[in-house]
Amino acid sequence: xxxxxxxxxxxxxxxxxxxxxxxxxxxxxxxxxxxxxxxxxxxxxxxxxxxxxxxxxxxxxxxxxxxxxxxxxxxxxxxxxxxxxxxxxxxxxxxxxxxxxxxxxxxxxxxxxxxxxxxxxx
Length: 122
Known about the structure:
7-stranded mixed sheet; 4-stranded antiparallel sheet; 11 strands; globular
C-alpha cells in the first residue's frame, strides 16, 4: 500500500501563503491525486485534484483562484500552493490518490496519511 506523508502546514495570517507537500513511499505516477481538508467538527471535504499526467486540475469553489495543485511524478511528490489564505481555510489537509473521470472525483483510495495542520488567523 502507498504511504503518504503531508507537510508544510503551519500558522499564517489571513492573506498569507503556504505550500504543502505530500510525499509518497512509492511511485504514484499512475494515480490521479487530490487534496482534502477537514476542519474541527466538520466532515472531510474535497479541495482539489490533478490527473496522473499533471495536465488537468480541478478545484472546489472556495479555493478557486487562490490555490494551485501541482505534482512531480519523478519525485513522487504532490504540492498545494495556497495563497490569499482565509480563516475558513483552517483545517487539517490530507492528500490521497483519487479516481478522476471526466473532470470529476469519483472516489479515493485508502492511502490517508496523518495530514498537516493549516491555521489561518484573522
